Amino acid sequence: MTSACATTAELIQLIDGELTENRATTVRAHLEDCGVCRREEGALRALVEDVSRPIEPLPGAVERLMGRLDEAPRAPHRARWRGMGAAFAVAAVAALAVGLRTRTRADLPGTLMARGAPAAPSLEHDVGVTVYRGTTHLEVVRQGDEVAADSAYSIGYRNLGPGDSAFAAVFARDARGDVHWVAPMWLDPHADPASEPLAHAERETRATGAVVLDRPAPGEMHLFVFVTERPVRVSEVEGAGGALDAQGLRRRWPGAAVEEITVHVGTGTGR
Length: 271
Prior knowledge:
271 residues
């Protein structure tokens, strides 16, 4: 089952590296299955690469352009650009910005000033955790998937931050409300394991081992990917109080990156 098609804005963000790691992983997986989105992504990438080549404006071109913009009538607020029209508008602005950056301070003294700064490190931007099902043949778990009660689950991750800057917990809440842990693996009921430390990894790294959930109830099941800056123990999560859901996790651990994946557990057997 493929995920929903990505929007044009998401494809542009993917090309620019501005999507979160989790969403970027989902969109890349969708592009493998969807020829329409793949062709649009290719066209956008070619357009962005074309307009991002450095250009040298003619003498006075910037001043004339800015004057025309000041004199142009304002467009109605309800006007909208759609599809490739919006993409071209974004790309055109990017081209103008690139052209301006090629000018030196000596060319336009006192008229341009560098703005912006490198993006601050964040769990949402730097860390991506993917949940897989299966053993010999791994499949990414996606929204709306039909899964078997005896499916095995494992995780892979990327961490662009320093080692031990992020810790991952992955668990499921089945239709009965029972909680099942994927990471950390909770095999000893007397233990209280902490979330998995994620080493620095620029390419996806597979965590060792896979786990089969203990008789999850048939019906809707919610998988939670929960990434924090410090380790969190199983007892802390299950004892947090209130509904064990994405909003509750964010309230209890501000700054955590939380993703919720809803699947449907069937009665058949897995691979």
